[in-house]
Every structure is written in structure tokens, then in C-alpha cells.
Amino acid sequence: MPNTIPISVVIPAYNSQDCLRASIQSVQEQTYPVREIIVVDDGSKDATASVAFECGAKVIRQPNGGPAAARNNGIRHAKSPWIALLDADDSWLPNKLERQVLGITDDVSFLHTYCVIDETGPTTEDVVTFETLWKRNTLGTSTILMRKSAWEDVGGFEEDRGIMGVEDYNLWLRLVHKGHKVHTIRERLVHYTPADGNLSGQLERMMRSELNNVEKIDKACGLTPDQKRRKLVQIYEEWGRAMFHARDMKKARRCYGEILSIQPRVHALVRWMATYMPVSLLNLRRTAVHA
User: Which CATH superfamily is 7-191 part of?
Assistant: First the structure.
């Protein structure tokens, strides 16, 4: 297969010495060769830069600025019109880029695939619109192949640390809102490593990022009151359930209280009341269910 579309791979990395080698190797083993591999060392305190250099990647060092700033820095230095994104703890199947390149047409700005770990099955709509993407983000960062010109058109990733963890979702929404077309390769071609989000403090930080992102997107894209209300309820419902499962009743109660203030519903009221139950009693029920 002729290599007619130059691709630069951008990998942001922070203290990633233990996983980066496998990530870079998955790029080097692609059946569709890339023009360059750019690793942006985001202020690591370990041997991340040395590992990247040993593997033959171009290394850019910067003070710690977060993954969005690292991706933007790498993309600015990229020499190719197409950018493939890959996180340092993820990896690709060998034919990932080959399958994506076949889906490129003149009207497509970015493409994504499914992840191997996705046990729920493909959920992306046949046509990705702002509304379908607003309902749920089904685009994984390490699956994305996009035009550099599209990234430039919307000003790149939002670098505000207040939305860290959803800065990718923020970009996809702004791209689609501005008319950039997404193409879905319905194959599982990426090994994705889920972030550790079991501790209630981590859950709360992620929830705060999602809430901040709603405000960012409202300002950038002009949400309708209904769109904003539905998303806020969705976020509080998701994280209220997670906090409840983690038995952080105070935070779960706050989430369900927010739902009741935005859009009262019986389910939220029942959950809110349940947060006052003794945790020992709730754990007995959990034990009985799994017995």
C-alpha cells in the first residue's frame, strides 16, 4: 500500500518511562508507516525523555502544563497535514492507521476507531452530530486521526486545567459544532488503559472537569437551555451514582440534590433519601445481591 498521506504521531508523556516504549513500538509496527513520532515530555521527573529518544522518537521537553498543552505543542511542531493522537499508556493494533487512511475523503476532518477494551460494544451513531456527541462522548483520544488544519481552525486543545480529563471531548465538540465531519472506523484497533478513578477525590475532580466543560462549550457553541440542563443532570446522575457506590454519601447527596434543583425527578429523590441510610445497612444489601 503506497504511503501517500503523511502522518505525524503526537504522544504527550508525563512520568511514563514504564509504558512509553510499548506505545512507541506499536506505532513503529504499523503496516502504514508514519512520517514522525513526536513525544512531548510534559515536565517528567523520570526517564521518559530518555526512553523516547532511545526508541527513535523526536523529543520535545516542556514545563508541566498538562496533556492538552503537550498535545498542542507537539502538533505545532508536526510536519504532516494529518495528526494521529496516542497517549503514552495506550497502544495500537498494527493495522490501525492503514484502516483509517482508507476512510479518508475530502470532506472528512477526523476519524476514530473503537477500543479493544470496550465491552459494551460499538455505540457511535451512524452520523456524528453535535447533538449525538453531546449526549455521550464515544471518541477515544488514542483512536483519533485528524487534519492539522481542523485543529488550527478551532484553536487547538483548550489548555485550561479546569477541564483536565475532558479536554479531548471539548475539542471534538468544537470541531463538530464548526462543521468538521467525523468518520467512524467500526473496528477495535486501540488498546486503551482506563484511568484509575476509584477514589472519591478523583471522582469529584473528574466531575468538576465535566461541569466546567459544560460552561466552556456553552460559551464557545451557544447551548440551548435544554441542552445545558440535560447535560448537567446527566453529569450529576453519573457521578452521584459513582459516589454512592463508593459510599461517599455526603458527595452523593450533593449530586442528587443538584438534580432535584435542576429537574426534579422521583429517582433522584429516592437516591437522595438513600444517602441518609446507614452505610452498614447498604453494604448488607450489596453483599446479599452478590451472594
Answer: Spore Coat Polysaccharide Biosynthesis Protein SpsA; Chain A (3.90.550.10)
206-219 residues labelled b (16+ CB within 10 A) or e (exposed): bbbbbbbbbebbee
Residue 203 pLDDT > 70: yes
Looking at residue 90, its pLDDT comes to: 96
Phi, psi of 151 (to 5 degrees): -60, -45
- Contact between 124 and 184 under an 8 Å Cβ cutoff? The reply is yes
Contact 15, 48 (CB under 8 A): yes
Closest C-alpha among 129, 126, 132, 127 to residue 230: 132
Delimit the domains of the chain by residue range: 7-191, 200-289
Supply the pLDDT for residue 116.
87
Fold of 200-289: 1.25.40
Judged against a pLDDT cut of 70, whether residue 269 lies above it is answered with yes
Segment 217-229 shows an average pLDDT of 97
Q: How much is the pLDDT for 124?
A: 82
Residue 36: beta bridge partners? 8
CB atoms within 10 A of CB 61: 14
